Amino acid sequence: MANNQLAINSLRVLEEHEIRITNLEQIAREQAELGVRIAKLELKLISKKNQVQGAQHRLHNTGWYKDVKKLEDIVNRDRLKRCMCQDNGIFLLE
Fold first, then answer.
1. Within 13 Å and on the Cβ side, how many CA atoms surround 75?
2. pTM here?
3. What's the pLDDT score for residue 6?
4. How far apart are CA 6 and CA 59, in angstroms?
């Protein structure tokens, strides 16, 4: 009878430990998912602090534009973009 009770108690303890392990595994998965989400958000923040302008913004060629006024507008917008990036701590890769 004592052995039977000991076996029942052992099974109960084993079940409790399995439940705790399952709960801990779930918590670990949730923390890992949270870590991934945080890393993705950090990457988004980093990428938002960088801007890239292609060569056409650096090497304005009048042959590309039929209207000189359009070229002047683009040059002015590029200059404004440089200033805005600098004022807001955004790295502009040209």
1. 12
2. 0.43
3. 84
4. 84
